[in-house]
Amino acid sequence: xxxxxxxxxxxxxxxxxxxxxxxxxxxxxxxxxxxxxxxxxxxxxxxxxxxxxxxxxxxxxxxxxxxxxxxxxxxxxxxxxxxxxxxxxxxxxxxxxxxxxxxxxxxxxxxxxxxxxxxxxxxxxxxxxxxxxxxxxxxxxxxxxxxxxxxxxxxxxxxxxxxxxxxxxxxxxxxxxxxxxxxxxxxxxxxxxxxxxxxxxxxxxxxxxxxxxxxxxxxxxxxxxxxxxxxxxxxxxxxxxxxxxxxxxxxxxxxxxxxxxxxxxxxxxxxxxxxxxxxxxxxxxxxxxxxxxxxxxxxxxxxxxxxxxxxxxxxxxxxxxxxxxxxxxxxxxxxxxxxxxxxxxxxxxxxxxxxxxxxxxxxxxxxxxxxxxxxxxxxxxxxxxxxxxxxxxxxxxxx
Amino acid sequence: xxxxxxxxxxxxxxxxxxxxxxxxxxxxxxxxxxxxxxxxxxxxxxxxxxxxxxxxxxxxxxxxxxxxxxxxxxxxxxxxxxxxxxxxxxxxxxxxxxxxxxxxxxxxxxxxxxxxxxxxxxxxxxxxxxxxxxxxxxxxxxxxxxxxxxxxxxxxxxxxxxxxxxxxxxxxxxxxxxxxxxxxxxxxxxxxxxxxxxxxxxxxxxxxxxxxxxxxxxxxxxxxxxxxxxxxxxxxxxxxxxxxxxxxxxxxxxxxxxxxxxxxxxxxxxxxxxxxxxxxxxxxxxxxxxxxxxxxxxxxxxxxxxxxxxxxxxxxxxxxxxxxxxxxxxxxxxxxxxxxxxxxxxxxxxxxxxxxxxxxxxxxxxxxxxxxxxxxxxxxxxxxxxxxxxxxxxxxxxx
Lengths: 399, 399
What we know:
Two copies of one chain form a homodimer. By secondary structure, chain A is α/β, with parallel strands linked by helices. Chain A folds into three domains: 2-129 and 299-315, NAD(P)-binding Rossmann-like Domain (Rossmann fold, 3-Layer(aba) Sandwich), CATH 3.40.50; 134-293, Dihydrodipicolinate Reductase, domain 2 (2-Layer Sandwich); 340-396. The first copy, chain A, contains 14 helices and 16 strands. A six-stranded parallel sheet of chain A has the order 3-2-1-4-5-6, with helices on both faces. In chain A, helix 4 links the parallel strand 4 and strand 5 (94-97). Chain A is elongated. The N and C termini of chain A lie far apart (50 Å). The model of chain A has no long low-confidence stretch (mean pLDDT 96).
């Protein structure tokens, strides 16, 4: 029997407790022995929780108990969570987490401490919620040079976009509905401005390409400015608009990492990933295109991944998984403004002006004061010089 | 540096050699050291192959060379391949394979030998080609009770069905085209009669539910008898016809395992898996629905999974993965004729006869001598007693 602890009894933490209880048999089969939940740390009291006998308020109890071998951090953020995780690792405990903000910001540091201590630091739940993606990348697709990772990594924005597409509603209207239904936070910025997706693509980039990518340096465009006109233009082009987070190496060795709404052709699997679902497309030079799909958030799906990591830590109590990436490097990221992409553009110019400026443009539609079209492959820096009055512009994912 | 060998220099074997060469750097990073291809065993000669210096014809060279730590079996079938794999394991070598026929038939036996010898026997490539599926199931979704696995596991039949749907062609016509294009074998039975998909779902069932499922005992219906009328009926019902292989536990503890063409609602991700692509849907009681998509066959995709397993074996040279399942048990499989399913049925009776026999039926269409409809949930054994003259019948996948 292996003693474990949960830090933070919010949505994810209570899901982890629930899964540990509900699937005891399966977990014991996977881990080789039972996982026994000894402590749950939270500042609050939960007098009605069936787990109330495990609740404690003093972190040092967990930190100083040598019986606790595996700790699931479910507090979130980079304040107390980072402090506690550091201390748990230094106390020789294996740590698993769903905290993408912490992993994106301090993953290299925490993996280094874990390496020094000979313990595991695992974070499958930090990207794609319940979807197995980090481990398949690091232990199944290892025979590949990864040519691109492209994902729908935020459920809230995907839900909003799906509603905008299916119901033809404006962003503000759908956001309000999503907030009322609990799918969006009262302050929706982390989701709708793309920061959450950005952290997740940084973690994928870190793992696969081996160098820390600072989320603050990644070009990130959210979904706030997408108009119903643009959604309609996508439909005309037989595409759907999706917030994609992408990473791919360029020929000069630099890494392109960016988050932006994209026009996705209906033929691409990502076009059919709707509602709160997430999906990650991985292209390897041997395997070709693969896709991993599932629930990217939510109590039990996220707990599924956290407990999966706890089981893996239990199996590898004496042999740590060799995960690491090096610290951020100067000039490692490509300037995304220089990458040739196909663009959808909506301009407040007439069709004639568009044809004059960009003869290759494929006009999707126009009215008296605007024109929507697709360009050929061109850099954003070129597009900006075309002299048209651009209202919106989004990259188009190739087939 | 770890010395490895390939048995069989056909499509998969030559792909493995190619990937080992092409992605040396990535492979060394994943394995912690370089994998060096020492031998390729084949009865044939390949005077023009860049790997000709590694070719040997005598298996005992591999078997008796203690330097060779990892062997990739790419011969196929259950004759010489089974003999060689057994002998490699007994010689203390780790073995990886893409051979679904051998794993489906003798997986329990081979895993037992591997366990006795303390070596790995890995077979990610045997299901879903390049798609990571076995390892995610066994090391990411371990915190779940797996409620169902449902997959498009054969690329040839999926290609044929896609063409039948998109072009409205008859099965025989499309099969002939597929044979001409090399997508189908001259003797297409293993694919079109569902045996290949059957072997793969058996391997998934073995791993997840821990007991050997004999492919010969699995109810298996192929795609030979699907008519263009049925394809059209599916379209009317906003569904697409797909050959699905399914496994789920029933309430009485028995396992339902079957392969059959299904009507798949357009809302289900599986409906959008086209051409030679495969996909496996896994539903867990914590994670909900997940899907794994990619190329289920082909030289490099399959080699990607084989070499991925070689890397995993290299990482675990001294610690074997604890995979096993017990031998077949009496009365372990449910009788699929007793499982309540929604059915599409095409009968040579009039609409009135259908309404009289099955009042809940949803009529999709009729002409003078046939009527196509969907039933409510009912067992096949009940359907057979309804007194209608059934021409074709296929289960409908629930939303």
